[in-house]
Design goal:
260 residues, alpha/beta, Nucleotidyltransferase, domain 5, 2 domains, two-stranded parallel sheet, 13 helices, globular
Length: 260
């Protein structure tokens, strides 16, 4: 909590230093789910002088789709967007500007990593249990409208899939322009699982484009990606470097343009 407060205060100060007249602070699943989340948001608001908006899972999903559409442009047919986060994963089925179904699942890489740590690499005993656990939750909790949809495009956003795209591309330094729109196949994700799973966490953390703070989270993230492929019967996803943050920016710009 103290580290988060210090970082957000620094961000607000930087934004004001650049002349930003409107600073918006948005909290997602960690604050939504924590028993003291509301009091933390209030303390953060007092410390920064800006209110903290704790968005609902549905609002987080909707804003993520706004960002994805801004980045990838129009996609014809039904699009299923999923956003793997630390404490939740959102799935949104949309077509054009209409959202047909959405859900925010309490399925995040942090609690999965705590339950299924792989400090020395994956093994044949525990990874299948992790994957089975994720599969079971998707089969149980995904709405029928999503599970049975004929999806024209599967789009993944946020850190897990963008990291996998960078690794698949062999990037030495993260390049959002190359990651944006990259086609990531189920076979490619499986190969990355084998590569990353053969390494202890310290060696994973040393790989280019794999943030050290994500080294223990990438395996649970891969499990969510693979279970999503399997549940929907799909073989390829498109990667979006744009997501929730860009969705917030799009709406802020629209509000500014519409104001008298």
């Amino acid at each position: 909590m103290a580290r988060t407060l210090a970082v957000v205060k620094a961000y607000v100060a930087r934004a004001r230093g650049f002349g930003a007249g409107d600073v918006r602070i948005v909290a997602t699943s960690a604050v939504r789910q924590a028993s003291n989340g509301r009091s933390f948001a209030e303390a953060l608001g007092i410390a920064t002088g800006r209110p903290v908006d704790v968005v609902s899972g549905d609002e987080e999903a909707r804003l993520t789709v706004r960002g994805v559409r801004q980045g990838l442009g129009p996609l014809s047919g039904p699009v299923l967007t999923f956003d793997i986060g630390g404490g939740s994963t959102e799935y949104v089925l949309s077509e054009d500007d209409a959202i047909r179904s959405m859900i925010s699942l309490r399925l995040g890489v942090i609690p999965l990593a705590e339950r299924f740590p792989f400090p020395k690499g994956i093994d044949g005993e525990h990874y299948p249990v992790l994957l089975g656990d994720v599969r079971a939750q998707l089969a149980r909790d995904l709405p029928a409208a999503i599970r049975t949809a004929t999806v024209a495009h599967l789009v993944g956003t946020a850190g897990t899939v963008t990291t996998l795209a960078a690794l698949d591309l062999g990037l030495e330094h993260y390049d959002p322009e190359r990651v944006q729109g990259h086609a990531l196949s189920r076979d490619a994700v499986h190969r990355l699982l084998e590569r990353l799973g053969a390494l202890p966490v310290a060696e994973r953390a040393a790989l280019p484009c794999l943030d050290p703070g994500r080294a223990d989270l990438i395996i649970p993230g891969i499990a969510i990606v693979m279970a999503t492929f399997e549940e929907l019967g799909l073989e390829t996803l498109r990667v979006s470097d744009y997501g929730l943050r860009e969705g917030l920016l799009v709406e802020a710009i629209e509000r500014r343009q519409q104001s008298p």
